[in-house]
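In this section we walk through a basic example: taking a raw amino acid sequence and producing a predicted 3D structure, encoded as discrete structure tokens. The instruction is simple. Fold the sequence below.
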Amino acid sequence: MTENKSFQLGTIGALTLSVVSSVSIVICNKALMSTLHFIFATTLTSWHLLVTFCSLHVALSLKFFEHKPIDFQTNIGFGILNGISIGMLNLSLGFNSVGFYQMTKLAIIPCTVLLETIFLGKTFSRSIKLSLGCLLLGVGIATVTDLQLNMLGSCLSLIAVITTCVAQIMTNTIQKKYKISSTQLLYQSCLYQALTLLISGPFLDRFLTNQNVYSFEYTPEVVGFIVLSCLISISVNFSTFLVIGKTSPVTYQVLGHLKTCLVLAFGYSLLQDPFSWRNILGIMVALVGMILYSYYCSQENQAKSEEASAPSQRKEAESDPLINVENGTQMTNELPLSKGTAWEVDKDLHA
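The resulting token sequence is shown next.
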């Protein structure tokens, strides 16, 4: 019971860290790109990952965590796939309207559910599906405006959705398969992600912006915001792997939509961004979906915990001391007690 409570507290901490760090980096990047006109998103992301790898390497040297190697092909494939996912999402935004890009992000949840159902044999209850539908409806109302379709943009969005779903599912399954922590997986994979984006980022950004990232005028203010963005990204990258490892890809996507609603609310309240009744209605509907999702997940996890503890309770009952009388003497036969499952593998059965 104590281990289960500590796991729940750890999960809540991971979710909180993810929300706070992600909202912070969105605010920082908004100032960097909108106010200071540094619009090279892919290259900036490669710098984020490189700084994250360097900080984790220092932490490893100081023995804050233990290096636990995994299969090289799995590692490099996972790292490159994550890099491609980020690049495809940026291309999708570049070749589509903002409304269609938001639809692309919304499509990640049903795609993840479909892939996990087909290839991993996971099942999602009707209550979970309805709560996810409510969430997606709310986020769609709040964020989706114009929907301008084109063949190239649609193909890029499809690739972005599939690569993102597969990468997030792999984040969860690799941690479970190799029994490694989110820090260990992030340390081993983020270098390959960084190299993928360091090579492709400048070309991709030039293609999307018609500007060269290396000819940009780097004033002290721009450099300061870049450094701040990179420092916050350490927490963002770490919390991403931590949340997916402790919960699931679907829950991480749900959390991502919560961040979107918080960013919209922050922009309206502090930055005086334009807001309408549609935004307010969408956020309210999305929050209802998130609350329902959290409630149903909690109910299902509690039921699973009770089912898992039932066999151990029976074994404990069977292991009570048995007093046998043989030839007038008492013999105590104690069977080893069986411990219950320390934590739930699936928090959905997860953005």
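Looking at the output, two observations stand out. Residues 318-351 have pLDDT under 50 and may be disordered. Residues 277-318 form the longest helix (42 residues). In the next section we compare this with other chains.
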